[in-house]
# Entry
Amino acid sequence: MLKDRKLRVVGAMSGTSLDGVDAAEIVTDGHRIFSFGDSAFLPYDAAQRAVLRGALGKWPEDDVAEVSELIETVHAQVLSRFTEAELIGFHGQTLAHAPQGRGTHQAGDGAVLAEVLGTPVVWDFRSADVQMGGEGAPLAPFYHFALAQRMGATAPLAILNLGGVGNVTWIDPSLPHPHSDGALLAFDTGPANAPINDLMQARRGADCDTDGALAAAGRVDQGAIDGFLQHPYFFRMPPKSLDRDAFTGLVEAVAELPDADAVATLTMACAASVAQGLQACPAPPERILVTGGGRKNPTLMAMLAQVCTVPVAPIEEAGFDGDMLEAQAFAFLAARVANGLPTSAPGTTGVGAPVGGGTLSRPSG
Ligand SMILES: Nc1ncnc2c1ncn2[C@@H]1O[C@H](COP(=O)(O)OP(=O)(O)OP(=O)(O)O)[C@@H](O)[C@H]1O
Ligand SMILES: CC(=O)N[C@H]1[C@@H]2OC[C@@H](O2)[C@@H](O)[C@@H]1O[C@H](C)C(=O)O
# Structure
């Protein structure tokens, strides 16, 4: 009875690159996307970003009150613009992720947001999957499946998100449901913008390597890449997921390199890990559609085209907005939760059976 309710939902994502909050509205029943609505981006200022950076690695039992309040305040600010939304999908800010260890931690309390905004909020999307033995990430794959259906895809394709961390979804659009056996295979590919941003911050006081300009002027240290690809993560079968700062060895390997060479090497490390990940896909995708901020880095896109054996293009080629895809994904997932549908499956997080994650908090009164 619940399963087909069509809702106007706004999703909000504060990603691992720590650049700000993306928010985007869609109309969906959690199966199909009926239409795309408004979107907004609210960047963190330098002081807010410093608070977030300082909180990375923290768990709920650590002192996270300041960062939670920051997340709730900034989200309330951006989400209050979406006055028509019937439901909110609130991801929060991942501070720590160890699905086989302590769990997964997204800062920010959705119940507080529901009260402040007077709208029901779905949040804590990852915990149930982790509790059921899954990786708790990536969660965008069911939305990627809906996008593939919307574009009328018939052959396998891949959607690659290059945020702070990279993640890919291989999709067989001929299967009926995202939780059909074999419809999806998803996993985190490796580091993407996070180590680049961190190095640019530490060495140049900049937020990122804008347009890949510094990387374009550098030389890739192939020894560092070869060493990086020996990391045990690349020998694990997908589905699998990463914490933001899992690759300390890569950061150490570029520590003594000149700035341009260090950034070029980090940029190639992202591309090389994607190429490595593609080998685990059931069949070569027809093309790789790239979403997330990394698609705006021409040096990274050129390196991807160089090391991948299939065509690589920004997701705009298929008519979608690569800046807002993750926010839309959490709107879509919120609608699935509200409609009692699963949000992850064995092929997306390694969970034993399809599971519905997410807590629905309604405003009182
Ligand atoms: N013009 C550009 N040149 C180079 N890099 C860029 C450019 N625009 C965006 N980026 C990179 O993309 C990042 C933002 O990407 P995105 O918004 O996809 O990340 P996120 O949502 O935080 O990540 P995640 O997918 O890990 O949750 C920026 O921090 C920056 O590193
Ligand atoms: C634990 C966590 O927040 N993971 C993020 C992160 O950022 C990219 C990659 O690592 C992906 O696994 C995930 O985000 C996307 C939105 C996802 O769940 O699909």
About this structure: Residues 13, 15-17, 19, 161, 163-165, 193, 196-197, 208-212, 292-294, 296-297, 326 surround adenosine-5'-triphosphate (ligand 1) (CB under 6 Å). The chain has two domains: 2-138+322-361, 152-318. DSSP finds 13 helices and twelve strands in the chain.
